[in-house]
Amino acid sequence: MTLTKTPLHSLHLELGAKMVPFAGYDMPVQYPLGVMKEHLHTREQAGLFDVSHMGQIRLRGSDAAKALESLVPVDIIDLPVGLQRYAVFTDANGGILDDLMVARLGADELFLVVNAACKDQDLAHLRAKIGDRCEIEPLFEERALLALQGPAAVTVLARLAPEVAKMTFMQFGSARLLGVECYVSRSGYTGEDGYEISVPADKAEALAHALLAEPEVQAIGLGARDSLRLEAGLCLYGHDMDTATTPIDASLAWAISKVRRADGERAGGFPGAERIFAQQREGAAAKRVGLLPQERVPVREGAEIVDADGTVIGRVSSGGFGPTLGAPVAMGYVNAAHAVLDSEIWAVVRGKRVAMKVAKTPFVPQRYYRG
Fold it and tell me: Which SUPFAM superfamilies match (predicted)?
């Protein structure tokens, strides 16, 4: 299979990146700095990520917000211009088809960022369900996406566009960077303060070069992106959630807007609402939890989780080493009875039991800028 290249492909090679296939793209997993140092650099200064493989989609029309609201358990109608919100597409059983960001560009215009591995099916889903209610424009080839993350991100980006310093977490707007009109949101996937920048594809390399020329900035690959999001307790679609898990199973009940809940003004009206509401009333059979292995043994995705008697009570959905913590971290699904803070449970790694404790996520403090 031929891998798709992002607009920054030649830059990655120039920087000495180790490239790997990811969601049909040839992507940098790490640079010569290495995953551990890239991770810590992002936590301490600023990291630049190429996330152009993600799917950017624009919806237009007077019915666009109402139409999109029929597919997600989120308040899109009242989303103000200049803000973005986290959402999930649900199926008829309440399972998660994908998670996404939704921003309001204008009164009749929405901007979506969906996962790379799901973008073609998400586009087909939107077209099938609401294609007759609004204009759906995929920007997969037209635009690149960069993420600038870490405590120095604001200092760096404000050198190019001073107004971005005033933005708060989840604000979204246009900014001119190097004379190019970009969409900028103050958000990310690391638990740090930072920005995601949507830029015309043919202008992405110049912008990336300019950001990398700043002394605080290093290029960061997918390896550190994964360890950063894991420490931040953030889900990765296809691992920590999928069509077999509802937002309640995935501990994402907070993402269901108040007005869309069972007692809300616009209750339901999204796929799988009945099942999701039943789980909210009665509780889910299993839940996603944070896990801290009590030994220095990384516990990986797919490992079985057992109780003291050796009965299987769940599975690990994401796991690895947390460089900030200097210790292994994981997330997984466990039976509701064991999904209690400080519960002692075990992962089975190569036939041996590794003690773990159920822990709060995020594993590191969130450093989003809320003003």
Answer: Aminomethyltransferase beta-barrel domain (SSF101790), Folate-binding domain (SSF103025)
Cα–Cα distance for residue pair 299/321, rounded to 1 Å? 9
CATH number assigned to the domain comprising residue 215 = 3.30.1360.120
CATH number of the domain to which 304 belongs: 2.40.30.110
Q: Which helix (H) or strand (E) holds 212?
A: helix 204-212
Tell me if 161 sits within 8 A of 175, measured CB to CB.
yes
Amino acid at 246: T
What one-letter code names the amino acid at 263? D
List, in sequence order, the alpha helices (H) in 215-254. Answer: 222-231
Residues 216 and 335 occupy one common structural domain? no
Closest CA to 149 of 205, 191, 99: 191
On the CB side of 245, CA atoms within 13 Å amount to 25
Is 60 within 8 Å of 134 (Cβ atoms)? Answer: yes
- 86-114 tens-digit pLDDT: 999 999 999 999 999 999 999 999 999 99
Residue ranges making up the domain that contains 185: 1-240
